[in-house]
């Protein structure tokens, strides 16, 4: 096995940060292509939206176990194998136009992406310590947010000039480029192998999931990010079919959505020392108010500019709440950091995928008012969860 060489520290770190936004890239880059793909695969809007849920569910489930596996069997070979399969899956999606095959490939991509992201997070812990490690770990959420911000913007142009398959070709070559960097400059950096003991792993999972503030927090994270995903699922149909704009405009709107998420996350970082529940309640009340106002305005005045003003504001609130509770969950069990990290990411993604897909298809979201209803449902669920958290008085 090839071992890590510290003389390549900078470029191997760069390679890691190139791969960290992969989950956002692979979910968001083809969003502007939804209407075109719907036509190609001869299915409904829900049929194409399901491709997102297929990825998120498999990604979330895999996150639960990926940490234990990369701790037991190493990071380097898993990343190399996953990148090759991931690249191949994208090229196959672009070539084989069968809906069931598309679903299967998206499930596979969710599994592979989870292993890549978990392994590369662990790689930073392997090669850095102290303040340097804190610095780079602090950059993770900022770098990750680049995926949802830039991917739909890029995807809009790819769709406009070369069609929906170009999105998957781009991601496939992105993976091959990353594979080349990993193959040449990286290696196995894990300091020691951890035995894969199922009874101990199950015991730790029960401890983490059995803690009320942590398990309820997964639902808070799920409802917050569901707002972002609901917009992502419905934006191409609202913008391109309701407002009659191009896929490039969809990309710009998704960019605004991602910027809102980023601003909310940065705002949460500035207010780190404020009481947890106070911050969460403030963000949630703002969500409820904005969702109601968005619904009322939508009944009297419909415009893409008004829509995006509300979306930007709503996603600031969602990003704020998500970042606040995500940080809490990651630091809740320092002695089981790998497991709690996997459960936090995986559990939140699972809840997000179920809530977003179910809500979108139940309400048939196609304009500002129905999108506002979806937002209010998520905000109301968050409000209920915060009431329970306040009663148990743990956080």
TrEMBL record:
<feature type="transmembrane region" description="Helical">
    <location>
        <begin position="280"/>
        <end position="298"/>
    </location>
</feature>
<feature type="transmembrane region" description="Helical">
    <location>
        <begin position="78"/>
        <end position="97"/>
    </location>
</feature>
<dbReference type="InterPro" id="IPR036259">
    <property type="entry name" value="MFS_trans_sf"/>
</dbReference>
<dbReference type="GO" id="GO:0005886">
    <property type="term" value="C:plasma membrane"/>
</dbReference>
<feature type="transmembrane region" description="Helical">
    <location>
        <begin position="170"/>
        <end position="193"/>
    </location>
</feature>
<dbReference type="InterPro" id="IPR020846">
    <property type="entry name" value="MFS_dom"/>
</dbReference>
<protein>
    <submittedName>
        <fullName>Multidrug resistance protein</fullName>
    </submittedName>
</protein>
<feature type="transmembrane region" description="Helical">
    <location>
        <begin position="43"/>
        <end position="66"/>
    </location>
</feature>
<feature type="transmembrane region" description="Helical">
    <location>
        <begin position="214"/>
        <end position="239"/>
    </location>
</feature>
<feature type="transmembrane region" description="Helical">
    <location>
        <begin position="337"/>
        <end position="358"/>
    </location>
</feature>
<dbReference type="GO" id="GO:0015385">
    <property type="term" value="F:sodium:proton antiporter activity"/>
</dbReference>
<keyword id="KW-0472">Membrane</keyword>
<feature type="transmembrane region" description="Helical">
    <location>
        <begin position="304"/>
        <end position="325"/>
    </location>
</feature>
<keyword id="KW-0813">Transport</keyword>
<keyword id="KW-1133">Transmembrane helix</keyword>
<feature type="transmembrane region" description="Helical">
    <location>
        <begin position="245"/>
        <end position="268"/>
    </location>
</feature>
<dbReference type="Pfam" id="PF07690">
    <property type="entry name" value="MFS_1"/>
</dbReference>
<dbReference type="InterPro" id="IPR011701">
    <property type="entry name" value="MFS"/>
</dbReference>
<keyword id="KW-0812">Transmembrane</keyword>
<feature type="domain" description="Major facilitator superfamily (MFS) profile">
    <location>
        <begin position="12"/>
        <end position="395"/>
    </location>
</feature>
<feature type="transmembrane region" description="Helical">
    <location>
        <begin position="370"/>
        <end position="389"/>
    </location>
</feature>
<dbReference type="GO" id="GO:1990961">
    <property type="term" value="P:xenobiotic detoxification by transmembrane export across the plasma membrane"/>
</dbReference>
<feature type="transmembrane region" description="Helical">
    <location>
        <begin position="12"/>
        <end position="31"/>
    </location>
</feature>
<feature type="transmembrane region" description="Helical">
    <location>
        <begin position="136"/>
        <end position="158"/>
    </location>
</feature>
<feature type="transmembrane region" description="Helical">
    <location>
        <begin position="103"/>
        <end position="124"/>
    </location>
</feature>
